[in-house]
Amino acid sequence: MNSIEANPPIDRQFEIYIVLSDRCNFSCKNCLNSSGPKSKRYRLSDQEANDLIALINTNFDIKSVHFSGGEPTLELDQIENFQKAITRSVRYGLTTNGWFGKKAEKVLDRIKLDELVVSYDSFHAPFITTDVIRILVTAAIDRKIATTVNFVYETIADLAKASEVMVPGCKLKPSVLVQSGRQTAPNDLGGLVDNQAASGTCPSLDLKLSPLEKLVYIPGRGFSPCCGPLAFDEKADRELVFSKIDNNLESNVLRKKLLTGTFADQFKQAGLSGGTFQNRCDACAILYGVHIESGIPAKIDLLSQPKYPAYFAAKKLLQTEDSSILAEALNLGFIYSGKLGITSRVGSESLDPRLVVQEIDDTTLVDFDRLYRSIYLLPNSEYITAVEGEQQLQGFRKFVEICHVKRLYYFEGVPVAALVLNHYKPHPFLESDTLHIGFIGYNKSILSAPLLSSIRTDWVASLHKNLTTSGIVSSSVQWFNMSSHKFHEKLGLKVAGLRVERRIK
User: Fold this and answer.
1) Which of 31, 2, 231, 18 is nearest to 126 (CA)?
2) Structural element, H or E, at residue 51
3) pTM for the predicted model, two decimal places
4) Best exposed site among 149, 207, 208, 344 by fewest CB in 10 Å?
């Protein structure tokens, strides 16, 4: 890593958040950076620590240093080393899960602290009692340390639990749950919605919230104004999100974009009219994220499926009709693909005798239409009009005609599943021919677990039978999204995670 250089004096003053590591003694399911006892993805190196110390000692615009993690008190020696080596006066802060509450004096008397932020909510509650939190908060206030409880909530009712740890002199900072890290299940905006999020700006840069602009340093990555989903997304565009502190202030791409105005302004500049978001991080992630976990589909869905539910859901949320504007606005500069290999062993089991398989042809095409409508068009009728659905179906019929494996499964005379495989052909990005899965799906409202297992075994057997020596299966680019990954992995198709970067013109 290049040394971090001091930047020239600027108008703004800064608080530096230093993430010491991702190691933590808790495993909270809402953790932004998926920290835990076994986490070893990053830890601040000695070189990075020395560069940061040199920067803080020479840059007088840095007024505060805040230690974070993971759980920063697990790196207490490193905090002490920082404070011994920093030769000028700055404020010190610490964000902790509070695990050491019963022996608070052993930590609070060992390091200098002007501010203590204790994370506690229903996500932390399984790992610690309210009594331990109260002991820590009381000890910090007794030492004249400005103390805040950071409480993440999904509904207003959740906030009632915050009263269990509050003591006189302690501040409460409520924060709406952000879809990031372990908290990746999209909630379709079903929880609280901040109708003012779009009219706000990034909290790290909003001087109305704090006189100090926040910069976060993540080991091995660099500085960023982001302390949320983008900063901890392994797939994020690092050139957009991170930079050295001198470049961060002068030319960091994300910071420059965030300083252009409110999120409403940024949506307007991108050709969008805005939307409804749960919080500012949600709005930012939709604008600048690579994979979206904030109530709308991943960008690859939007780019490669302009006539699929992913597109219609996003169109409804972002209030735009033009797919090209949508793609451009969401910075869809890359196509992602993946290489698959079949890992399931093909058993000798025959297909369940209650199931009947027929070829999709002129006589059975009407049954395939029934299946396609029942498992795809009807569940997504909120996003797909009847006309659009019929256009999809007509287009897919033409595709089925050129495929060489077209298996339609019946149970008690009703079409319940299908498998459509195209011929071997060159993959648009991989350097090999691939067996292309054109369609694979089933009606889970009808099938029992044994029947479904039998169909899946038959699917895998068909894939094995039709593979050549390359052993590569593809589903074209529109297939690659998280829900499809999980679905296909259940069939024994293991995603190797190839990232293909072909810029869209």
Assistant:
1) 31
2) helix 46-58
3) 0.58
4) 208
